[in-house]
Amino acid sequence: MQRVYFDNSATTPIDDRVLERMLPYLKENFGNASSIHRYGQKARVALTEAREKIASVLNATPAEIIFTSGGTESDNLALKGLAYPETKRRHIITSAVEHHAVLNTCKYLEKKGFRVTYLPVDQTGMVDPEVVQRNISDDTFLISIMHANNEVGTINPIAEIGELARAHKILFHCDAVQTFGKIPVDVKFLKVDLLSISGHKIYGPKGSGALYVRKGILLEKLNHGGHHEYNRRAGTENIPAIVGFGEAAMICQQEMKADYEKVKSLRDELFQRIQSVIPDVFLNGHPEKRLPGHLNLAFKGIEGEALLLSLDFKGVAASSGSACTSGATEPSHVLLAMGTAPFLAQSSIRFTLGRQNTTEDINYALEVIPEVVARLRKISPFN
Ligand SMILES: *Cc1c(COP(=O)(O)O)cnc(C)c1O
After folding, report:
1. Is the dihedral of CA 326, 327, 328, 331 positive or negative?
2. Whose CA is nearest to atom 6 of ligand 1?
């Protein structure tokens, strides 16, 4: 059976070039980067080179990059790391559509005595800088807003929010896990103080990620131990993963334009062909200001979970909501925050295309989707 992978926002397949780069560090170059001998030196050189690559892609300096185990840890490190040294102010601003790595860290901080405002978004899932402005108080010390949403792909006006944060002397963190490698992510242009990224969303290995922390910012540690990562994140560095992450970021940077055009045109073709043969299909997310691979659609009258299972049975892999919450039957917090009616939110599924997808994938999906939708609509109690 043919198989098509349309869940690139949950994770991506590792690029062959990335894997090739990693293999020596899983075999002969196994050294600990803290060791003095030549095994250690080899690992240390690789670590330095990867750090330089990530820094250059972000327009940061190497000393501003902390390698972590991924986006979740980066988000935790940013928010808790800033909250603990803060002694006077107690207010955090974030949005209602953040990834759970940010939302649940904020919930935790609320229990620890911080006050959190979860900003509403518009119908497309976008945060309005004016709404941010209105919610700033003397007590606000941190704003955390994602660059693009993982469920619908809507891209936020981060530079404008960064400008506001800076004018009010408030620290600004951005979860850029979904945008990094796909559209330009320049920490200076975006005016961010901290920024989270992850390797496995960009054709790199799982368990790799980084947090950009602008020079001079005080951050409490989560991990105590050795003096790794400029004494900000203890633990022997995962050199193979870090090497892979650095390589994946370089490839994304070099091929960004071509990948963007290719992925977007496949995505647009998928949408246009679905719309032309299936009635009552609605797009969730911003029609233009959206990541190139995202296609989140509501198929009126069908249970999203049922649709996913039927599609998977026919070899088409998509998802509902975020990967981390699938299995739960509650409608997506993102779609609800956008004001999507609950019955449409329940009928929504997300296709996210990536570099490896082809026109054949689209053709195969179009053989499968209309038939599955028609069958499910026929047996649906809603129709
Ligand atoms: C995937 C994702 C994360 C979590 O990253 P991991 O590396 O899987 O821990 C955080 N934020 C967003 C927006 C994501 O899409």
Report:
1. positive
2. 71
